[in-house]
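Proteins fold reproducibly. Look at a sample protein:
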Amino acid sequence: MRRAELRRGDGPGLLLVRVFAETADLPAWAEEHREPMAELRRELSLRLPSARMLEFTSGAPDGPVISMPDDGSLAAEQLSSQDIVRKALALLRENYVFPELAGQVAASVEARLAAGEYDNLDEIALTELLTSHLQDASGDKHLRVGLGGARPPGRGEPGRGPGRPGRERDGRDGRDGRDAGQPAGREPGRQRMRHPGQLVNFGIHRVERLDGNVGYLDLRGVPPPEHAGPAITAAMELVAGTFALIIDLRRNGGGSPHGVALWCSYLIDEPPTRLNDIFSADTGETRQFWSYPYLPGRRYLDRPVYVLTSSRTFSGGEDLGYTLQALGRAEVIGEATGGGAHPTRPFPISAAVHIGVPFARSISPLTGTNWQGTGVIPDTPAPADQARDVAYAKALRHVLELEDVPPPIADEARDVLATLEMTG
């Protein structure tokens, strides 16, 4: 199979999936692959019920097409759009961190349901529309309905998703940080999670020494330490000798509160510091997150840190910027962030759809509040595309104020700063 296409069907809420097979003899190919084709038809009926027609073709002009319509045998397991909305609202009422607000949001969506706004929508259109209505009514960007049936959540640790289904999941998800001392039976699952994290370098998109001996980290996610710990240690070791550090969170969609704690630990002194609390509404318990007293690498102390933000910075990325700002350890430069401070769990609605429901809320022991709705407010406002230059210029001025900077580095700093000031 070379590729597949998803297209709108002939009627409302109907989808066509067309699979292009790499063969010159489609009938012979289909005979050989009869069982996988049937399994694909079954999976589509479960996971994308609106895909009523499945077609196989070689893509050749005027070539044969083999059609496999949904035969209706799994109809009992396929929920209508109205049933999906009703179940989503029931899960919202049962699990949302603010029950009163959950009731108000559900009532507003129920009015839309009664008016027929969700009738005859396929899963793609339904999840997009319902998510927009839920977020508009709640102001909570973590609250969303997405494709794919999630496994029933455990009652373990809180995690933060990136506000986009299945990414970050995040990093997207970097979804759920767990204690490093978990039972040995968890190790195979941990290794499975580690592998896809390696493909994106555990969210560490770039580590660089900029001219003038300024460190630069571009972080696109915040995975938990048991997966990302060695990569985080290596990144911090590579910038350990710099005179100032820029942490770019402009494209960071979120991750684990434990990962946030590890990054913060490298930037503050050894005595454990209480960084953040997460209150879980379902248990009534508050979990505290502290910095690590021991680290396998060197801490980055007594040098300025600049954090770059944008409106796309969300969830765990916001947690990192907010906490460093509240500690007085970093200057935040850029735009106000997305404003999502509620850890989220996925709940299955069907094999095709799930809902992510915020079940907890962050409470900073440093500020007594969080960044929900407001976002992290920058110390130095700047358009997102200019934030790096603003921070770099500040860092270079710091370098030039230091004593005993080697002449080659001082020359680098002067040359780059002059260019930045000229173009800025």
Summary: The chain has three domains: 3-77, 81-139, 184-275+294-340+371-401.
